[in-house]
Fold these 2 entries.
Entry 1:
Amino acid sequence: MSTLTQEIERRRTFAIISHPDAGKTTLTEKLLLFGGAIHIAGAVKSNKIKKTATSDWMEIEKQRGISVATSVMGFEYEGYKINILDTPGHQDFAEDTYRTLTAVDSVIIVVDVAKGVEMQTRKLMEVCRMRKTPVIIFVNKLDREGRDPFEILDELESELKIAVRPLSWPINIGQRFKGVYNIYEKNLNLYTPSKQVVTESVEFTDINNPELENYIGESDAERLRNDLELISGVYPDFDKNDYLKGELAPVFFGSALNNFGVKELLDCFTHIAPAPLPINAIERQVKPEEEAFTGFVFKIHANMDPNHRSCIAFVKVCSGKFVRNENYKHIRHGKMMRFSSPTAFMAQKKSVLDEAFPGDIVGLPDTGNFKIGDTLTAGEELHFKGLPSFSPEMFKYIENNDPMKAKQLNKGIDQLMDEGVAQSFINQYNNRRIIGTVGQLQFEVIQYRLLHEYGAQCKWEPISLYKACWIESDDNAELENFKKRKYQYMAKDKEGRDVFLADSAYVLQMAQSDFPKIRFHFTSEF
Ligand code: G4P
């Protein structure tokens, strides 16, 4: 096996996603502890964006600033190179999370045993389903009172619309929580509520062994045997291929805070999760083991310091080897570029890297050369697909508040849109610019950044819109007819594509039924 293939095989690049407060930060931290990447609990915590309904976005941005270091956390574990891509917890930054999901090969979903599937989890799962990303589910907080595990499994299946298969099973819950039986490895893990200690496990291949009673008592032993029998009766055996196809989610139970059930999760994850996968470019499919380097920008992180208007562009390596100081082609600009100080992310440390392999994330210092979705290659004309924009949910007209600064305003808006802060549309009827976002905070972010980074003043004016969707049709006449009929509600996105601005759910529904030959898309990738 060549070094390149070996390096690819041992890489696991994934994201942990959850509804705020389910335990994503805690789980991340425990995984880093196992990898020896950090040594004390609480180290990741300080970077957490508080998700309480704060609208103090400066505070959030400050925390986001710190979180550059934890945007990607790489560490070594038992021969594997693991890259965790962090996703912002605040729902107003959901778009960032969606994009990060395009750069991972698999996902771990954390669910709170008391709360079950929550709104944010459901939305993020839709993105995983769309991309057929393999997911593992971790049901957390078993040390607290919660719901019946069978009930949770049913809910996972119906709410997340994916088949599930428990690979570990809890023995009681809350104060009576005694541990989990690891179905995958056939051993019993007894619970010691200690935050730092890795619990020992007992080999237990035969669950009918009467020894079980000695460990967990008579009634729990009986219940565990019954539960396991029911599980093997109801759920088909775990099939790794179904998991890899994104059709089946293995489920683990535990308590991240108590570091319980986390090692089982990590061990199973490293075995079954996919190494970097081929990625589709418009021209062709690119395989990781190809010799020539390719990669794409999935995230741009701006420096909030107005004196240093620099960014970091996060590049996912898709194929070949990225080497420092080599010349690579920036496809959109059609020019060769050399990077003398690319950054590697290892746990919380950033360091200059000399080479990176598929699955790795490279940070490139940038002064406005990159936008989200840009492709870099060793020379081949390639354009990676699959960085969707989602139909925004909030809209406002943006207006210039300082006529002397029109140029700065436009430049600022264009760059912020390239960074992926929000989406801009030009209404074809009145030529006004509309900004669409997924959260209220983005409007404040844009206004503040335009002023502080570009010296431009904007003001917002209300527009009542329900949804913006991309439209297309094979029937050109029908498309033209639609655009004529709806001319007040037609806009162009920044790529010049047609967008329909529906002002209510009813109007959208009517348009869909009146124009069956037109396809309405709710993400820009179709
Ligand atoms: P998030 O990143 O998904 O938003 O969740 P985070 O890890 O920050 O966890 C949210 C809260 O839940 C934290 O408490 C955390 O300590 C707690 N938690 C996480 N895992 C478990 C668990 O297995 N059992 C129990 N009982 N609690 C858990 P907090 O009070 O918000 O923060 P802190 O004061 O503990 O830092």
Entry 2:
Amino acid sequence: MKNILIGVSGGIAAYKSANIISMLKKKGYNVKVIMTKNATNIISPLTLETLSRNRVYVDMWDEKPHYEVEHISLSDWADLVLIAPATYNIVGKIANGIADDMLTTVISATEKPTFFALAMNVKMYENPILKENIEKLKKYGYKFIEADEGLLACNYVAKGRLKDEKEIVDEIERFFLYSEIENYSNLLSGKKVLVSSGRTREDIDPVRYVTNNSSGKMGYSLAQAAVDLGADVTLVSGPTELKEPSSLKKFIRVNSAEQMYQEINREFKDTDIFISCAAVADYKPKEYHNEKIKKAEGNLIIEFVRNKDILFEMGQIKEKQFLVGFAAETNDIKENALKKLRKKNLDMIVANSAFNMSSNENAIEIIKKDETSQEFSQKSKQELAYEILKVVANEINNKNKNNK
Ligand code: C5P
């Protein structure tokens, strides 16, 4: 398992580092912690020592005897460095070559991927000096996890709050996943990716609707993975409970299949890759009742009419676009997926069992236009998203080579 070195600097959010360390340990990572002197005023080293099950480092001149040059051995040990929370001060010090304690010395001495999870008062967050420091550090490959908006310790409701701990841990895990992909940073760079995700909702009257149990997890994971691999991503999403992926070019929320069609159709022309992951309702009620339908004697019959098949329509007008469809089936998965691949004029289809629709994991089979296929056993949807995009990038490269 990977080794993660956590740096804790002295913002009030330092107490949240305990949660991050605990989550990482539960996932099986090895964790060591370095704190600044200021951070120890906010949370006790003993807490982080107990959670990380390792000694916590604060002082360069610790009285405990050691035979190693500790700031170098810690950096060698780490696969990744995460500073959470990262204060205005620590960003400023690193950007300006200051290494005056254990944490800043280790960060300055390491070549390992280093993430700063920012947290500070909004006035400091908006200070142009911080922005300049961040831009400078980004040029040297440092990565930043932006702060969220919320109630700050200083009582302002504004940007500056440490990103949700789970989201920080997710971001670190995603980094491990995509950095294993060769040339990951430019795998999809310059590509415009359009993803549809989630379920649609077809209204019957002001209080009732029909929908399905798609969670949107696969589509959101694909959108996020495409961003991580360098693409410009537009996500068109039906209703979901999920948080918007970070750094999208555009995020469009819709309810009905008709609205989804309008948005996809508008975006499609300027798209290189369209991944149709949404579970679009095939039917909608023939009429919408402006008033709530009253209970009456006997049965209620609602007539349904066909919705447009968005992916089929895009298959008809496609030019250069690479089209990826999904087939969630309860039976004869591969046969049904192949029929859709042909009928909808797709470049690729991802076949999977409809029973995995709202779970965090899935097993899939990717079938290409030439009808060769590749199976992927049970994995998280996040991991599968990278696998799918690797195949897509490969196909596009091969297509380009053959066209030359
Ligand atoms: O034909 P079926 O609905 O099973 O095909 C599934 C694929 O078609 C998925 O990629 C889904 O997003 C897409 N689809 C669509 N519009 C519909 C129905 C399905 O784009 N109305």
